């Protein structure tokens, strides 16, 4: 298993967790905390902190995802800047001369 494969698996896992955490949240501030009675003014059993946990975990997973993507770029084979492309090579820009097609001598005897 290469380093890139390991990074790819970690990226998929973190992206899946990020989707789960975002889907649990409610855009109006309710989400998981509102299902435990967080809609009122009284907070029971630390439910108010559930929203803070989901918010912090979203930022953490998003930052981790970006870091993993940037680090995986380092592990790609051939990312050292070595270019084997002939199209970008300016030192060998010689053109080969075009030769005309060969003609036959049969065209002069067409009259007889």
UniProtKB/TrEMBL annotation:
GO molecular function: protein-transporting ATPase activity
Compartments where found: Cell membrane
One Gene Ontology CC term in the entry: plasma membrane
Membrane topology field: Multi-pass membrane protein
Transmembrane segments: 6-24, 58-76
UniProt KW keywords: Cell membrane, Membrane, Protein transport, Translocation, Transmembrane, Transmembrane helix, Transport
InterPro entries listed in its UniProt record: SecG (IPR004692)
Record field: compositional bias (Low complexity): 93-112
Region feature Disordered, mapped onto this chain: 82-112
Top-rank lineage group of the source organism: Bacteria
Pfam families, per database record: SecG (PF03840)
Role description: Involved in protein export. Participates in an early event of protein translocation.
Family: Belongs to the SecG family.
Protein name, entry field: Protein-export membrane protein SecG
Protein species of origin: Winogradskyella jejuensis
């Amino acid at each position: 298993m290469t380093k890139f494969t390991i990074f790819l698996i970690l990226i998929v896992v973190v992206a899946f967790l990020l989707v789960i955490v975002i889907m649990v949240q409610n855009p109006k501030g309710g989400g998981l905390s509102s299902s435990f009675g967080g809609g009122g003014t009284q907070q029971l059993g630390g439910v108010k902190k559930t929203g803070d946990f989901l918010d912090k975990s979203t930022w953490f997973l998003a930052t981790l995802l970006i870091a993993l993507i940037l680090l995986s770029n380092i592990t790609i084979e051939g990312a050292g800047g070595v270019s084997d492309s002939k199209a970008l090579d300016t030192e060998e820009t010689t053109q080969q001369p075009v030769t005309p097609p060969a003609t036959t001598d049969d065209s002069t005897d067409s009259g007889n």
